[in-house]
Specification:
By secondary structure, this protein is an alpha/beta fold. About 50% of the residues lie in helices and about 10% in strands. The chain contains 28 helices and 19 strands. Bound molecules: (S)-3-hydroxydecanoyl-COA. The site of (S)-3-hydroxydecanoyl-COA has 27 residues, from helix 2, strand 5, helix 3 and helix 11. Monomer.
Length: about 700
């Protein structure tokens, strides 16, 4: 008998209960148990109807993803669902938590579904690069129509119980005790002699003759490079066009194709990596955490304002400090406008706008920060300015307050040394726009205390971010790799490529935009300031001047001035190649005696990507990132690296580290440039025939 699913009688209703923490995933034991308990319930003469329920935090949240790629063990989930659907006793699914993927598919095999008002249902398989493979693509369109089913399946987004009721996915909302509610509902159905409801017997309706072509068109841009959303559409189309059993066969074929696809392997890797980054090697699980109930942000500019919004969104009061009243007022007005725009799009209510604004308290005085538990500094990237801020924070903040810097490149250890409490100092590097981007690079200083790290990592999740712990070096993980790539992109242009060509190669790899469009978006002056700071602080390691410096000096700062590496038309973010910039590049080549040559797309790909892989390997060697997965999560959530390629280092494994190492060595020989000196780790792995992931 299964240990993870049990059967008992509650009065005249049989209860099948799944208990497989943490999320009742439908692993082999659960599938076996569900089948056995169903059979037991069917044989139990005292049971007039059956209820399926999950113990602990949720109804099954899907198939057990860890089983994918391993030899399948019966019973297969589609067969389990089919057996529930074939039951000649009424079965009611009682849903709480998140009935996702295979979990919802089991519920769709039941005759009726009741849900707690706090529950969510959904078919998120697409986010793992697969599709619902236990009949979800065949039953949901039959239940709610093809259009709505496409929206649920192709987005993969969870649906709240109340909306699921409106759609017809659930039949009844229960508040209070779910089991009691489900038993009462099942008894009523039995008493009323309610019919069995087998979704397979319904006809799926297509409301619009061009539904599938139009739907495909509507997602083409957003889902560029992904395979699963398009397979999901094909599967739903089969539900409309084929009899149920043939549709199931089609679903199975499409599922099988996706399961072995590199895209799905990468997306599943990201699913686990995203969770793994929270577990910091060497940091005990039970490390105590400091309480964070009141936060402050220094600087009400774009970054500071965005950072403050994260806390207000999570219901945490946040003070925001500026030295000049005008700047403070402007910053607060921008935050309000951002919220109002979100409300206009219907994503939050007017009431939420006011609630969040009420949590943001402007101040002009450092003395107001004496009671805060955490301060995040988001001022100008300049050591002298940081010194002034941290000296003030050290003076006013209470003992035990965490002092964080949002610096993207400066030395956190030096910043910590401006205080008498370096153990309380660490970096919290938000990515722009800070209220949107999910990544938070949390930078551990030499002296940062363990409980400070544990607190900040936990807080990252509380405010909806993916926090990755990194060590101190110039640019940390993300920007350190990025700067190497940007420099290589510029060098490729110096040699003969055009900015548009370089951008296209990286766009085609799956980046949301190329290196030059990206610097135009961020503002060309950002990189310029960093380079200038480096030229002052560390001239030996600073990059030589190039045509991009000249662009900035001519006032071409990027999108904000409608001119950067590319030109921009008013209100249009499309980069247009600029003759003025081409002339500047030609002048630069001439002045430096460079003979322009044809640069192939393959060379662009190799140089822009391999330089990052090599730098990533150095970062691992130095312990700046603990694991390859930390680097990958940073690139996915901070820079839009395509999820379906799994991250820069996961992608490198798919190319083969020997191939990359050979090229890196060749570039090193040809250029003598230190950046191409092969990382010892890369060399070792390549020689052993291994990848970053073994
Ligand atoms: C699926 O269902 C395919 C089907 O269509 C069937 C196909 C059958 C085909 C057969 C053909 C013959 N599996 O996120 P958290 C772990 S695909 C294994 O921190 P939260 C997670 O790794 C699945 N493990 O919690 C973590 O482990 P750790 C569709 C899973 O409260 C722990 O649980 N379903 C797992 O923030 C806690 O997770 C999904 O995609 C799973 N399915 O969020 C749902 N789900 O502690 C994926 C979680 O060791 N899951 N874990 O780090 C989620 O979205 C979130 O985990 C929840 C909970 C919202 C459920």
């Amino acid at each position: 008998m299964s240990e993870v699913v049990s059967y008992r009688l509650e009065g005249d209703i049989g209860v099948i209960s799944v208990n497989y923490p943490p999320v009742n995933a439908l692993g082999q034991g659960v599938r076996q148990g569900l089948t056995e308990c169903l059979r037991q319930g069917l044989q139990d003469d005292q049971a007039k109807a059956l209820v399926v329920i999950g113990e602990g935090r949720t109804f099954p949240a899907g198939a057990d993803i860890r089983e994918f790629g391993k030899p399948p063990q019966g019973p297969a989930l589609p067969d389990v669902v089919a057996e529930y659907e074939a039951s000649d006793k009424l079965v009611v699914a009682a849903i709480h938590g998140t009935a996702l993927g295979g979990g919802l598919e089991v519920a769709l095999g039941c005759d009726y579904r009741v849900a707690l008002d706090s529950a969510k249902v959904g078919l998120p398989e697409v986010k793992l690069g697969i599709l619902p493979g236990a009949g979800g693509t065949q039953r949901l369109p039959r239940l709610i129509g093809a259009q709505k089913a496409l929206e649920v399946i192709v987005s993969g987004n969870p649906v709240k119980a109340k909306d699921a009721l409106a759609l017809g996915i659930v039949d009844e909302i229960v508040s209070g005790d779910l089991l009691e509610g489900a038993l009462a509902y099942a008894r009523k159905l039995a008493a009323d002699n309610a019919p069995l409801r087998r979704i397979r017997d319904l006809q799926a309706k297509k409301e619009d003759p061009d539904l599938f072509t139009n739907f495909e068109k509507s997602i083409a841009r957003k889902q560029r490079g992904f395979k699963a959303p398009f397979h999901c559409i094909k599967a739903v189309q089969a539900a409309v066009e084929l009899p149920f059993d043939e549709g199931m066969k089609r679903e199975r074929e499409l599922f099988a194709e996706l399961l072995v696809s590199p895209e799905s392997r990468a997306q599943r890797h990201v699913f686990f990596a995203e969770r793994e980054v929270a577990k910091v090697p060497g940091l005990a699980k039970d490390t105590p955490k400091r309480e964070i109930n009141q936060v402050a942000v220094i600087g009400a500019g774009t970054m500071g304002g965005g950072i403050a919004m994260n806390f207000a969104n999570a219901g945490i009061p946040v003070k925001i400090l500026e030295v000049k009243e005008e700047a403070l007022e402007k910053g607060i007005a921008v935050i309000r406008k951002n919220y109002e725009n979100t409300a206009k799009k219907g994503r939050i209510t007017e009431q939420q706008v006011e609630q969040r604004m009420a949590l943001i308290q402007p101040t002009l005085s450092y003395d107001d920060l004496s009671d805060v538990d955490l301060v995040i500094e988001a001022v100008f990237e300049n050591m002298d300015v940081k010194k002034a801020v941290f000296s003030e924070l050290d003076r006013v903040c209470k003992k035990g307050a965490i002092l964080a810097t949002n610096t993207s490149t400066l030395d956190v250890n030096r910043i910590a040394a401006f205080t008498q409490r370096p153990e309380d100092v660490m970096g919290m590097h938000f990515f722009s726009p800070a209220n949107v981007m999910k990544l938070l690079e949390n930078v551990r200083g030499e002296k940062t205390a363990d409980d400070v790290i544990a607190t900040v990592m936990d807080l990252s999740r509380r405010i909806g971010k993916v926090g990755v712990l990194v060590g101190v070096c110039h640019g940390f993980v993300g920007n350190r790799m990025l700067h190497k790539r940007q420099a290589e992109a510029v060098q490729l242009v110096n040699e003969g490529a055009s900015p548009a060509q370089v951008d296209k190669v990286l766009f085609d790899l799956g980046f949301p935009m190329g290196p030059f469009a990206m610097s135009d978006l961020a503002g060309m002056d950002v990189g310029y300031r960093i380079r200038e700071e480096l030229r002052k602080e560390d001239p030996d390691n600073a990059p030589p001047r190039n045509w991009t410096d000249e662009l900035v000096e001519q006032g071409r700062l990027g999108q904000k001035t409608q001119a950067g590496v590319f030109d921009y038309k008013d209100g249009d973010r499309t980069p247009v190649p600029s003759e003025q910039v081409d002339a500047l590049i030609a002048k630069f080549r001439e002045e430096n005696g460079i003979q322009s040559r044809e640069v192939s797309d393959q060379e662009i790909l190799e140089r822009c990507m391999y330089v990052m892989v090599n730098e990533g390997a150095k970062i691992l060697e130095e312990g700046i990132a603990a694991r390859p997965l930390d680097v990958d999560v940073i690139w996915i959530y901070g820079y839009g690296f395509p999820v379906y390629r799994g991250g820069v280092l996961f992608w490198a494994d798919s190319v083969g580290l020997k191939t990359i190492y050979d090229k890196v060595s060749q570039f090193h020989k040809e250029t003598g440039n230190d950046v191409w000196k092969p990382a010892a780790l890369l060399e070792k792995l390549a020689n052993e025939g291994k990848g970053f992931y073994g």
